[in-house]
Specification:
By secondary structure, the chain is an alpha+beta fold. The protein has one domain. The chain is built from 2 helices and 3 strands, in the order βββαα. The protein has helices at about 35-75, 75-80, and strands spanning about 10, 20, 30. Strands 1-2-3 form a 3-stranded antiparallel β-sheet, with helices on one face. It is elongated and about 40 Å long. The termini are far apart.
Length: about 80
């Protein structure tokens, strides 16, 4: 498993809880009652987010490849034949 080092920005919300986000990992949002809890929860949430992003990228790449292959079969000019 890869190890990533990211910046975690924590702010105390007016409503009471703390919110953690990262400019290095868009989509990372961690909310907890204390800043310490945000720090404790962030690594697992970041790892889950990175896994989903990687899986989505792989699925998207495979889907794009299948579409390009299908389109090439329909249009012989794109295959060079």
């Amino acid at each position: 498993m890869a190890t990533y080092k990211i910046t975690l920005e924590i702010e105390h919300l007016p409503e009471g809880p703390y919110l953690g986000t990262s400019p290095d990992l868009p989509g990372l949002i961690v909310q907890a009652e204390t800043a310490e809890e945000v720090i404790r929860l962030a690594p697992d949430i970041a790892a889950d987010l990175i896994q989903v992003m990687q899986e989505s990228s792989l699925c998207h790449s495979a889907s794009s490849w299948r579409h390009s292959q299908r389109d090439a079969q329909r249009d012989p000019e794109t295959t060079g034949h």
